[in-house]
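Input record (one chain):
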Amino acid sequence: MAQHALVDTNVLYGAFQQRDQFHDEGLSIVTAADARDLPVCVVLDFVLAETMNALTQERAHAGTRSRRNALTQELAHAGTRSRGDDRGPLDGS
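The corresponding structure, as predicted from the sequence alone:
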């Protein structure tokens, strides 16, 4: 049985916000998960919404949109998705 790890906003936000105090730790977790060196990461809907909201609140910064897109791509690549996605369960069935 595959192991699962619950990921919260501190990890995701830190990974994509270079000025965040948890940037290095968050980025290393996201990078390791992407390389499949960690268990399957589970991101709850409200955590994704909170992270996206925090990133988009910084509209004054030119890179916010690209960080948001990178986060969405990373999550899609890692096999996670939010409610409303019609691709079916995470296990692909």
